[in-house]
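Field: COMPLEX_INPUT
Field: COMPONENT_COUNT = two
Field: RESIDUE_TOTAL = 835
Field: MODE = joint
Values follow.
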Amino acid sequence: MGYFDVPDRSYTRYSNRQLAAVPLAVLAVALLVLTGTFLMTGAPVPLGMDFAGGSELTIQTTSSQEEIANAFDEEPESIQSVSAPDSQNQYVVQFTSTDLESLSQQAEQNLEQDGDADIVQLESTVSGSFGERTQRTALLGVAVAFVGMSVITFLLFRTFVPSIAIVLSAFSDLVIPLAFMTVADISLSLGTVAALLMLIGYSVDSDILLNNHILRRQGDFYESTHRAMRTGITMTVTSMAAMLVMGVAAGLFGVKLLSSIGIVLFVGLAADLMNTYMLNLSLLRWYKFEGIRS
Amino acid sequence: MTGPVAFVKEHWRLLLLVVFITGSMVSLFVPGGVMGGNDYVETQDSGATNLEYGLDLEGGTRISAPVTGMTAEDIDAGAVRDNGSVDQARLTEIERTLYDETGLETGNVRVSVDDDGNAHAELFTENVSEEEFAAALAEAGVEVDPDEDIREGVTAETRQQMVDTIQSRINAAGLSGGNVYESARLGGGYYIVTEAPDMGADELRELLAERGIVEVQAYYPTGDGNHTNETVLSGDDIAKVDPPEINQETGETVVPVQVDSNAAPEFQSRLNELGFTDPNVGVQQCGLRGDGESINFDHEGERYCLLTVIDGEVVDAHSMGPRLANSMSAGSWENDPTFQMGAQNAQQGQALSVNLQSGSLPAPLDFGEAQTYSLSPALAEQFKLYSLVIGALAVITVSGVVFLRYRNPRVAAPMIVTAMSEVFILLGFAALIRMPLDLSHVAGFIAVVGTGVDDLVIIADEVMEQGDVSSRRVFESRFRKAFWVIGAAAATTIIAMSPLAVLSLGDLRGFAIITILGVLVGVLITRPAYGDILQRLLTDK
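Field: COMPLEX_OUTPUT
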C-alpha cells in the first residue's frame, strides 16, 4: 500500500527551525496580503453580496452576453454563464443596486425569452444594512467557533505547547485560504464562511491525531509520526478530493454555495497538510526532546 | 456464546445500525411517514420519498425584513390599576394624544399593556424622531427620556401579531406550505421572515406591503354645504367575517360581518345621532358611483354614505339600507349586531374579506432593509438534479481514494457502505422531522461523507497496525484507542459548527445542523458498527 507513504526518516534531516520556517513564512505572506488588501479596500477579503449588499439574477435568455450587459440601466457587476448538462442560455448576473423590482422588470422587458421558460429564474437581494449585520454575525460565529475549538484542545491535552501548536496551525489554516480568496478574487459569502468554520473542525482532526500518537503512545518519535502521517494524510487527501470534485462540479453548474464551500475547503485542507506536518510537528518535536525537560 | 442475550451483547453495535437504517427506510419510503397527518404536504409532494424540499430545491420566495417602528417600553402611563386591571380608557386617551401630536395616520400608533402588566407605546413610522415621540408622550402626561427609554423596533406582541397576520394572509391566498417566523438579529431587533413556495417575488412583496387596515367611515353633510368623513367602526371592532356574497336584492357584492358586542352600541348610537337611520334624512341617500377601484366624490346636494376604507383609500360607498336603519333607530340592532359591508366587485370583496379575517398588519415592514430570495420552480428542479450529481461524484471520488489507499476491498467496501449509511440515516431523520432540504443541507451531507470516511480511516489504520488482529481482546483495545481520537475530533467539529446552528445566518443553519447531526450519528452509531464489521472480516470468526 504504497500510495501515500512518505519518506520515513526524512524529518531527521531538518532542524525544527527549518521545518517551522516554511509554514510560518507562508502564514506571514498570507497575513501581509490580508493587511494590504485591508488597507487598500477597507476589507481584508472581497465581500460578496451576502455581506456587502446587492442583487443577483439568474436569467434564462437567448440574448447574447453583451445584450444582457446593455439590458439594464445599471451596469452589472459580473455576468457568469452557467454550463450545466440540461440547461443552456443561463446566466448569473450580479448588481450593486438593491432595487430588485426594477432589475427584474428590465430583464423581462429587454431580453429575449428562451422558449417558454421564465426569463428571471432566480432573484435575490440583500440590502446594505442587512449585509452589515450578517457580517458582524458571521464574524462572531467564526470567533466563537475558534475560541471553542481552542478551549476543547486545551482540555484534551492539558499541556501548553502541544495545545498551542494545534491552535496555531488551525489559525494558519483559516488565514491561508482567506488570503487565497483575496488573490483569486473569490468573495466572502455565507458559503465560504461555512467552509471556514468547517475547516476549524476538519483541520484540527489531523492535528489531534498527530498529537495523540506522539504524546499518548509509547514508542519512537519518528515511528509514531510516521503512523500518524499515514492515517492523517489519507484522511486529508480523501476530503480534499471530495471537496475539489464538489467545488468544480458545482462551479460548472452555477450552484455557487456548493462551489465556494468546496474550493475554500480544498485550499484550507492543503494548507492544513503543510501546517500539521511542518509547523505542528516541529513544535511537538521541540517539546518532546527539549521542552519537556526544561 | 449462545442465547439471544449473548447475541445482542456481542453484536449490539451492528444491531443498532440495522435498527436505525430500518427506521430511516420507514420514515423515507412508507407513504405518510412515521408522523402521519399533515395532509397538505402530501398533496404537493408527489415524489417517491417523504423528503421535503425548501426554497432552493422547490422554488418560491423568501423575504426577510425588519418591522418599521419605535417603542417606549415600560412607560409609567398610570393605566394599570393596583389590582392589575387595565384602564382601557386611559390607553385610548394616550393614543389619541399621540395621534394629535404626531399627525400620523390611523394604525400607526399603539399603546398597549402586555401580559406582565407593563405598558408600552409604539409608533410605526420612520418620520418621527425620538425627541418628538418623547415630547408627544409628555403631552399625554407620560415622562420618558428620548435616549434611554425609546428604542428602535416594536414589542414582541406586535411582532407575533405580524407573524400571525401574514400567516393567515398566505393561507387565505390558498397557498400551502407557506411559513412565517421571526428571526433575531445580532445587536438587537428582529426580522420577520416570510417563505412562500408558490409565489413570485413581486406577488409576495405586494402581499406584505399592504397594511390592510379596514375602516367604516360615515360620510355626511356638516350643514355648511360641506361633507366630512368620520370613522365609526374599525377593523378591530369586527368580531366575525363571512366570505363575500351577492346581495339578493341589490345584486351587489357584500361581506357580511358581525360587530363586536362592545363596539356595537356606540356604532349604533353614533349613526342614529348623525341621522343615518332617519328615513327622512340619511336612509338610501348615498348614490355615489365608483369605477371598480375608487369612488367619485363629485356630487351636489347632501349625501349620507357608509364608506369602506382600506389603508386610507375609499374603495366603496354604500347607502344605509332601510331594514338596518329600522333596527338601529329602534335600538334593537346592538342585540344582533350584523350588517353587510359593501364592495364594488367580487375581487374587492374577496380582498376585503381576507383583510378583515386576517386582521391588519399592525406595523409596516421596512423593505429598505430587506433580503429577498426568489427561485423559479424550473431552476429549483435543476438544482435538485445537480445536488444528486454532485453528491454522487463526491461519493465516487471518496471511494476511489479509499480503494487506492487500502487495495483491500474487505476494508474499503464496508467503509464506503458505512459512510453512505450515515447519510441515509440523516435523510431518514430529515424526513421524520419534516426538515425542508436546501442546498446548504446538501453541502452538509457531502461534508458528513467527508468526516465520516476520515474517522473510518482512523479506525481501520489503528486496528490493522502492528500486524494481524489475532483476538477479540486485541481488537477491542485498539478500537478503544482509535475512538479517543474520533471522539476528540467530533467534539471540535461540533463546537466549531454550533455557533452557525444557533446564529441566524440564513442558509448556513441547515449546513451546521446536518453536520452536527452527522457527527453524532457517526460517533454513536455507524462508526462503532464499522468496527464490528471490520473485526469480523479481519479476525475471520
